[in-house]
Each structure stands twice: as structure tokens, then as C-alpha cells.
Specification:
The complex is a heterodimer of chains A (97) and B (155).
Chain A lengths: L1 H4 L3 H17 L2 H9 L1 H4 L2 H19 L1 H6 L6 H17 L5
Helix pairs in contact in A: 2-5
Chain B lengths: L3 H21 L5 H28 L4 H21 L3 H8 L1 H4 L2 H15 L4 H8 L5 H22 L1
Helix pairs in contact in B: 2-3, 3-6, 6-7
Classes of the chains: A mainly alpha (97), B mainly alpha (155).
């Protein structure tokens, strides 16, 4: 996609996360996870799926508040670890010149 | 004012130039790039599956193992970034390295390391998500939007 459409990586990643969230809404992504396991969860589209899934799960449990708390139900761990480990590594490592 | 003849010559020259230029500009080696992205992306996901299987073998259910697996993959991505290795994988494999969550971790860690020189608060703190931020923003917009529609339609 980067070759054909000449888009920036960030645009492609945004597209992936949105597609993952939408496919999750149609129930397609759950089947993809069942079939491929980490093959469907590790790509960024799995991140979008996790937001949709958590948000819907918590909305059914808590109502409107759940829509928003649920967004980080499954993804909070990823975001927090990314921040934590990245800050640690930035303390000890420098970018190559 | 340029005469019609001169303008036509200019247009001809431009067409000639474009033809010449497009023959010289390197074309992305599409087949090679797709194949490499497929293999490397697949290998990263295979590693993820191996990590997940290890967590399941240690007594977790499949659902419980997802979080720790992703956290482990993020740690791997961050460490490879700190060692300046992920950068090479990215150059070699393009989207094959960018799309997995290790790539997400790589963009956060790389930004943290790069902007550290602008200070820990306004540099590292402010710009850590300079590349990964859009993924969070649109992921949440799409995810919460989808969940809202589904929740409203089913009650």
C-alpha cells in the first residue's frame, strides 16, 4: 500500500486501526481472531478491534459511561506499557547519530 | 508574449522531460516489497503467537493471555528500538514492520529517544506520541463510534 498509493506510514496505520474497529463492529474481526490468533491481534487493526470490543462490552454493562471507560479496557495495558517502557529506554539509550 | 510555435515547443519539451524522468525515477519493487512485508509481518505475528502459547501453557485462558502477549511484544519493540535494531527491520520490511504492535512501540520509543534532547517534559513528554498519536485518536473515534452504533441498535 505504501508503494501503490504513496501515502505516509501514519495514514496507513490510521486506516488499519479504523478498518479493524469497523470490522469488529460487523463481528468479522472476532472470527479473524479465532482463526488467526496473534496473527489478527498483533497488527494495528487488532488495536482498533480491541477498542470497539471493550467499548461495547462496557457500554452493555455500565451504559454511556462504559462506552468511554471501555475504550481502554483491553488497550490501556498496551498504551501504558508503551509509554512506560519507552520512557525507560529513552533514559538509557540515545538515537544513532 | 510567447508565439504559438514557441509554446508548442515548450509543451513538447515538457512531455519529453516527463518521459525521460519517469524512465529514470526508480520504481518501487512492488513484488519484492510485498513479499518481504508478508514474511516479516508474518514472522512477528508468529513470535506473538509463540509468546501467547507460552502464557496459555502457564495456565492462562486464551482471553487472559492476550494482554500479557501484547505487552511482551511492545517490550520487544521498545528494546529493539533502544538497540537501534528496529530501524533496520523497518527499512528492510516497510509495512511488515510498521503494522504489528512492535512497530507502534517502535514509533513511541523512537520519538521518546529523539525528543529527549528537547527536554523531558516539553520534548519527550509532549512528543512521545507524535507518530503513534493519530492511531490512538482515530482508533478511539472509530472504536467508540462503532460501539455506540451497535449499543444503540441493540439496547
Amino acid at each position: 500500500m505504501l508503494d501503490i498509493a504513496k501515502i505516509q506510514p501514519a495514514h496507513m496505520l490510521v486506516l488499519f486501526v479504523v478498518v479493524g474497529a469497523v470490522l469488529s463492529g460487523f463481528g468479522v474481526y472476532d472470527r479473524l481472531v479465532e482463526f488467526a490468533g496473534a496473527g489478527a491481534l498483533v497488527p494495528v487493526s487488532g488495536f482498533g478491534h480491541s477498542i470497539s470490543r471493550g467499548s461495547l462490552l462496557e457500554a452493555r454493562r455500565l451504559g454511556v459511561i462504559g462506552l468511554f471507560t471501555g475504550a481502554f479496557e483491553f488497550t490501556g495495558l498496551g498504551v501504558a506499557t508503551a509509554v512506560f517502557f519507552s520512557a525507560l529506554i529513552a533514559l538509557v539509550a540515545n538515537p544513532r547519530a | 508574449m510567447a508565439s504559438p510555435g514557441a509554446m508548442k515547443k515548450k509543451a513538447d519539451d515538457r512531455a519529453k522531460y516527463q518521459k525521460l524522468a519517469s524512465s529514470i525515477v526508480p520504481r518501487p519493487q512492488l513484488a519484492r516489497n510485498i513479499a518481504v512485508a508478508f514474511v516479516v509481518g508474518g514472522l512477528i505475528c508468529t513470535l506473538g503467537q509463540a509468546v501467547m502459547n507460552a502464557f496459555i501453557a502457564s495456565g492462562m485462558t486464551g482471553d487472559e493471555a492476550v494482554g500479557p502477549t501484547l505487552a511482551t511484544m511492545i517490550l520487544i519493540g521498545v528494546v529493539l528500538t533502544g538497540l537501534s535494531i528496529y530501524h533496520h527491520i523497518g527499512e528492510f520490511a516497510g509495512a511488515g514492520a510498521a503494522v504489528p504492535i512492535t512497530g507502534f512501540a517502535n514509533t513511541v520509543a523512537a520519538a521518546a529517544m529523539d525528543f529527549k534532547r528537547e527536554g523531558y517534559v516539553l520534548g519527550m513528554g509532549a512528543k512521545m506520541f507524535i507518530i503513534a498519536g493519530p492511531v490512538l485518536v482515530y482508533g478511539i473515534l472509530a472504536g467508540v463510534g462503532v460501539a455506540l452504533i451497535k449499543w444503540l441498535s441493540r439496547g
